[in-house]
Amino acid sequence: MSYVKGLKCRECERRYPKEALYVCEYCFGPLEVEYDYERLKKEVPRSKIERGPKSLWRYRDFLPIDGDPVSGLSSGFTPLLRAENLGRELGVHELYIKDDSVCHPTLSFKDRVVCVALSKAKEFGFDTTACASTGNLANSVSAQSALANFKRFIFIPADLELGKVVASLVYHPTVVAVEGNYDEVNRLCTEIAGRYRWAFVNINIRPYYAEGSKTYGFEIAEQLGWTTPKHIVVPVAGGSLITKIWKSFKEFEKMGYIDKVETKVHAAQAEGCCPVVTALREKSDIIKPVKPKTIAKSLAIGNPADGFYAVKTVRNSGGSGEGATDEEIVEAIKLLARTEGIFTETAGGVTVAVAKKLIEEGIIPKDESMVISITGNGLKTQEALEGKIGHPIKIRPSLSAFEEAFREKGVSLPRGNAPVTR
Ligand SMILES: *Cc1c(COP(=O)(O)O)cnc(C)c1O
Ligand SMILES: [Zn+2]
After folding, report:
1. Is the CB of 236 under 6 A from ligand 1?
2. Same fold across 4-72+110-209 and 80-106+213-385
């Protein structure tokens, strides 16, 4: 059994039973899962989490499933790395990377939301799953639905990166490439969801799906020794992750697991698609939809479903928003790789680039702790680096050819200092 009381409208607070619902029928506000915190407080001490599995399921008391999970048994519990090299480069003292580029099974944080959504879909009795996706969600729904024996339909914009298309197709879903941007794909899927009784993970079971993102924040708090950082930089697409990281910290605070949360949450978007950052810059509550034009395709949502709440989260925390141009994204991908040995996708380029700017602008002081969110893997967005990372040096297979190639370039080879052996 779970600690879920039901669903609650985020606007008018009307309550609903825990069913496959997602909008309030009175005010059209989004529904959110509500927990019994009184009982959680009595029955779930911090030590129970610490004894749990080394996956996101160690937080299952804070997730909306009743039975056992049907996928994602090894998802989550990704590294939180102290990034000394990058920190030195950026001039900050205490920098961490939360690295979901190695989240199982599909190398992005979307595995967290999908395993919760599919487990709930099974409990509801759905036999078919689906999603509207900018790529990573497609990969995760494809893979995890294969494992959990769902029929699966994946809807993506037709211009996605090859790596993301292949990493869906291999799991044998039906992939529908829609000639349009994500917002058009999403609108189409909302119509399809009205006609076919499929579990669209990010549409009709979105309240359950979204809760999975909390585990990203739970892990950060636990891995920092049950504290939260002074700052966290979070990528924003639909705006769900950023709101759920904040919710996760606040839940742990409410439980008494951690002290009062004083984390400033900073939103990171690509300049070519930054409706949330624009609202923050203009100090407005209204999210003006935009037509995305950026290499950060995983973040290219021009009309974010949770944009309003993303803005609210940033403001309530005292954080800020900043954008990154395509060139800055590429430079940041290379910077992270060169300093920390992590190859992130374009979304990670956005957060690193934005973190760099916020430090330079003095918005993140150099002596305060900070986390940069890395949410996806660079092998999926290789197009972004085409022609921007040089080429291998091609030679014939001989020692002289090797040395000649460098002599020609005027590059002297390091002698190295390995001990001499015979
Ligand atoms: C989906 C996605 C995000 C943003 O998620 P939202 O919850 O929609 O804001 C961030 N990074 C990557 C790599 C993603 O795939
Ligand atoms: Zn309502």
Report:
1. yes
2. yes
Distance from the alpha carbon of residue 77 to the mean position of ligand 2, in angstroms: 35
**Whether residue 141 has its Cβ less than 6 Å from ligand 1:** no
Compute the radius of gyration of the chain from its Cα atoms.
22
Token pair in block for residue 405: 């190639």
3-class secondary-structure state, position 369: coil
Per domain, the residue ranges of the chain are 4-72+110-209, 80-106+213-385
Look at strands 264-270 and 31-35 and give their pairing: unpaired
Bridge partners (DSSP) listed for residue 155: 132, 176
CA atoms of 300 and 237, how far apart (whole Å)? 6
Amino acid residing at 418: A
Spatial separation of the C-alpha atoms in residues 40 and 126, rounded to whole Å:
29
Instruction: Tally Cβ neighbours within 10 Å of residue 420.
Output: 5
The dihedral sign for the CA sequence 95, 99, 135, 31: negative
Q: Which CATH number fits domain 4-72+110-209: 3.90.420.10, 3.30.870.10, 3.30.300.30, 3.40.50.1100?
A: 3.40.50.1100
Query: Which residue among 78, 213, 298, 342 is best mutated to probe the pocket of ligand 1, counting the most ligand atoms within 8 A of its Cβ?
Result: 298
Q: What's the whole-model pTM score?
A: 0.97
The predicted structure's pLDDT at residue 420 = 82
pLDDT in tens, 349-407: 999 999 999 999 999 999 999 999 999 999 999 999 999 999 999 999 999 999 999 99
Alpha helices in 34-135 (DSSP H): 37-43, 46-50, 84-90, 110-124
